[in-house]
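In this supplementary section we document a worked example of the pipeline. Step one takes a protein sequence of length 114 as its only input; no multiple sequence alignment statistics are reported here. Step two produces a three-dimensional model, which step three serialises into structure tokens for compact storage. The input and output of this example are shown verbatim.
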Amino acid sequence: MASPSERGQASVELLAGLPALLVAAVIAFQLLATGYSLTLADGAAEAGALARAGGGDAEEAAREALPDWARERVEVEVEGGDVAVELRPPAPLVAVGEALTVSSRAWVRPDGDG
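The serialised model returned by step three reads:
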């Protein structure tokens, strides 16, 4: 059976390890959020390019392809048949989100070319 001092030592070790566990959880969440944001940016760029190919508004289509939380974090640029999407993933600090901004591009031949 463990003595009281050994049980106290285990409690101290548990408390000392909690911050490291919390940091690891935040890092894992950030990696998942960034990967998901890249997937969303890919889909939005493709939606914009498809809308452009059909003669629609590429920027509006790209924004509509995103969930509500991402629409305020996105920049869409359309030049000819090129649709570029930049998306800032959710992050606990704004600077981290800006540093991890993801981007995607899709291209189609604009309607009337060729």
